[in-house]
Amino acid sequence: MSETNRGCLTSQRVRDGSHPKLHGSRSLMGLFAFLALCSTGILANPETGELQRPSANSSPRRIVAIGPNSAEIICALGACDRIVGVSKFCVYPPELGSRPQIGGLYDPDLERIAVLRPDLLVTRGRNDALIALCDSLGVRVYDDLADSLAGIERTIRELGEILSLDDRASVVVQDFQDKLSAIRERVADQRRPRVFLTIARRPDRLANILTAGRGTFLNEMLEVAGGENVFGDVEMRYPEISPEGALAKRPDVIIELMPEVSLTPALEQDMRLQWRGLGNIPAVESGRIYFLADDHSLIPSPRYHQIIEKVAGILHGDANLASSPSE
Questions:
Q1: Are 60 and 141 in contact (CB under 8 A)?
Q2: How does pLDDT run across 114-169, given as a tens digit for each residue?
Q3: Which of 80, 136, 147, 176 is the 20 to 30 A CA-CA neighbour of 155?
Q4: 238 and 264 in contact (C-beta within 8 Å)?
Q5: Which of 200, 271, 278, 272 has its CA nearest to residue 246?
Q6: Rounded distance, CA 202 to CA 38, Å?
Q7: What is the end-to-end Cα distance of the chain in Å, rounded?
Q8: How remote is the C-alpha of 269 from its chain's centroid?
Q9: Are 124 and 67 in contact (CB under 8 A)?
Q10: Which helix H or strand E contains 31, and what residues bound it?
Q11: How many angstroms separate the CA atoms of 323 and 92, rounded?
């Protein structure tokens, strides 16, 4: 799985803790002095030199967003200007490209985060060093748990409440719900094909294949789009599947989500040949193998309805939405 996708998915599987590295370019003595200052919960404003402690009572104005989906949610709420730091996985909206990057969940730049003086850190998965830093600085932490469609809506509402943007959050949630309802209505009377969804694998061969199981927004995505996930009964959220395991399920359609891969006609043809060499699969025999390289295909954000619409088009023959099938 790519680093970008790990920023959205892997954290859902390791919320029990991690052991990140402490990144920084200062000398060891300078770093010790810096962390001693952090332990007081007070930092200097880099522009004025004034010592400040974050206020626990005011609506957050300086936000560091670890998850790319939470950054998108905050911007959808109209608070993009409050984001002062983003993870290296952030891809949207474009205006966040100029914000300071603070690493990811497993390699956060703790010193840089502290210098940014956040009053809210939105994380996605647990990192003990991050929690300790925020505790020492008096910074509020919100843990984004948006790994389901309902979780996306809940995260929108909760961040709206935290940011005093409740009304805007209600509008964003309603728009999201309306778009999902429209898709469900469009596919309600259609036959539900059996789908094998890959969310990561080696492009050069059928190996290290990850799929989505029960309780994930990806499983729900297939359901809303009018399909049936062939591994939707698996309790593990993101299991690794052998090629033989995929063959045994005999899917009608194979959809590969590959936002990290630069797809070319030659690469797509090669990947189709890999599936054909596996054996007799209905999806292969009918040529129903599809590749989606959209940058947000694995990011559970308010714009995820766009991916669901594309998948619905693939499954039910909407020429305006479906990508080209295999030859």
A1: no
A2: 999 999 999 888 888 889 999 999 999 999 888 999 999 999 999 999 999 999 99
A3: 136
A4: no
A5: 278
A6: 43
A7: 27
A8: 28
A9: yes
A10: helix 28-38
A11: 22
